[in-house]
Design goal:
With 415 residues, the chain is an alpha+beta fold. Helix content is 42%, strand content 19%. The chain has 2 domains: 184 residues, no CATH class; 185 residues, Nucleotidyltransferase, domain 5 (2-Layer Sandwich). The strands form 3 sheets. A 7-stranded antiparallel beta sheet has the order 2-6-7-1-5-4-3. The radius of gyration is 26 Å and the shape is globular.
């Protein structure tokens, strides 16, 4: 399995100048290829290579050929993503026009998707264009000035991955500092499989609720994000020099805070799962195009919900402990009763209360969804002929024990 070690480069002033020029020319190549690919609708890397390589080599003769090709590869990925998004955006606009006409609303103008462009494109190095010496903590990079051997330093957390086989690396420049994201390959741990299956319901109000009665995350996270948003909105409305200076200090704070919350949440979730077990998540891909929220605040929270980032953190942390991560279709998991199986939209009375219309089973709505996620995965295993893994857990039964039918008859562990 692969892990990324982030090291900080310590170049001399002369080396820093060369690295900046290399990044600038690499970014120019990226923008040129992305523009041609987007305007022509060409997403094939081979065809883009034929159309752009020799011209870019003439325009930037000092830039190594490997870096020109690396820029073309990254531009191809961006073009494919932009073309896919442009197609979806156009289709969704026509649907919105029909909806606006039915509702008698004004039709907003169409905003076309633009070609991918960037001010600083990280350079992706491969085994032929760079190497790392962990003993002397130096990195050799191909640049417009030839090979440069640059000193570097790694954090204490990154020390555990040093010494493993090195794969690719990305050179980034942020806030006046050069960073090298080195991908290393480490052996996959050998863990005995465990029949434990944990269903996890991810949400905006409750970050994560497991079928084993763990309510993970803290309510203050939501208040912290709201406070930063309101502060930024207030400073943006002022527009004074001091307000702009304060905004620069707040730049990226909300992103870093949410990333830290997702790291903490994913770590707690993996810790509550036995090694070799299974974590089942909902497949929330394209949920923003399917779901709707009323009110500006609700829409803002919904469209800034970092569920994909959290799922990625859970996947790579679980891999280190031999825990398998699966995703299932989320349909009806919030409406189905985990006790009798009755599905009805009005079973969920509020955000936190689930009360079955048929059997009067009452419990937290997110906990009920987490149990349904687990049962849905176990049912899918039984349908393909693997009933050996379908076992009951003492802490997350599909049929609740005596006394669990009341919302207040069990204790919930809040982490």
């Amino acid at each position: 399995m692969d892990r990324t070690v982030i090291v900080q480069l310590k170049p001399t002033p002369e080396q820093a100048t060369i690295l900046k020029r290399t990044l600038a020319e690499h970014t120019a190549c990226f923008n040129a290829v992305a523009k041609i690919g987007f305007e022509t609708g060409e997403g094939n890397g081979v065809e883009l290579h034929k159309q752009t390589y020799y011209d870019l080599r003439r325009r930037y003769p000092d830039l190594p050929a490997q870096l020109v090709i690396a820029a073309r590869v990254k531009a191809t990925e961006a073009v494919v993503s932009a073309l896919t998004w442009a197609k979806k955006h156009e289709a969704s606009y026509h649907k919105r026009v029909v909806k606006w006409q039915k509702q008698g609303k004004d039709i907003l103008p169409f905003k076309p998707v633009k070609a991918p462009q960037t001010h600083s494109c990280p350079i992706r190095y491969d085994a032929r264009s760079y190497w790392v010496n962990w003993n002397h903590m130096t990195a050799s990079l191909a640049t417009i000035g030839g090979r440069l051997e640059i000193a570097m330093s790694a954090s204490r957390q990154a020390q555990q991955y040093i010494g493993h086989r090195v794969c690719s690396a990305d050179l980034c420049y942020r806030q006046g500092r050069f960073w090298l994201h080195v991908v290393v390959s480490i052996p996959v741990p050998v863990v005995e499989p465990d029949p434990t299956v944990i269903g996890v319901d991810l949400g905006e109000t409750r970050p994560a609720v497991t079928s084993s009665l763990h309510f993970l995350g803290q309510r203050r996270w939501k208040a912290q994000e709201r406070r930063i948003f309101r502060l930024r909105r207030k400073l943006q409305s002022k527009g004074t020099k001091s307000a702009k200076r304060h905004l620069r200090k707040l730049s990226g704070k909300l992103f870093r805070q949410r990333r830290d919350h997702d790291h903490v949440l994913s770590k707690r979730l993996v810790q509550h799962t036995p090694a070799g077990g299974t974590i089942v998540l909902e497949n929330l891909r394209e949920i923003r195009s399917r779901g709707e929220r009323r009110g500006k605040a609700a829409r803002r929270r919904f469209h800034t919900w970092s569920f994909a980032q959290l799922a990625g953190f859970i996947a790579y942390k679980a891999e280190q402990r031999g825990i398998a991560v699966f995703r299932i279709d989320p349909r009806t998991t919030s409406q189905r009763c985990s006790r009798c199986g009755h599905v009805a939209r009005n079973n969920r009375r509020s955000q936190s209360l689930f009360l079955c219309r048929k059997c009067s089973y009452c419990l937290n709505a997110d906990l009920n969804a987490a149990k349904n996620i687990r049962e849905k995965y176990l049912t899918s295993l039984a349908s393909v002929g693997t009933p050996s893994l379908v076992g009951s857990q003492s802490s997350c039964l599909s049929s609740p024990p005596s006394g669990e039918g009341q919302a207040s008859s069990f204790s919930l562990e809040v982490t």
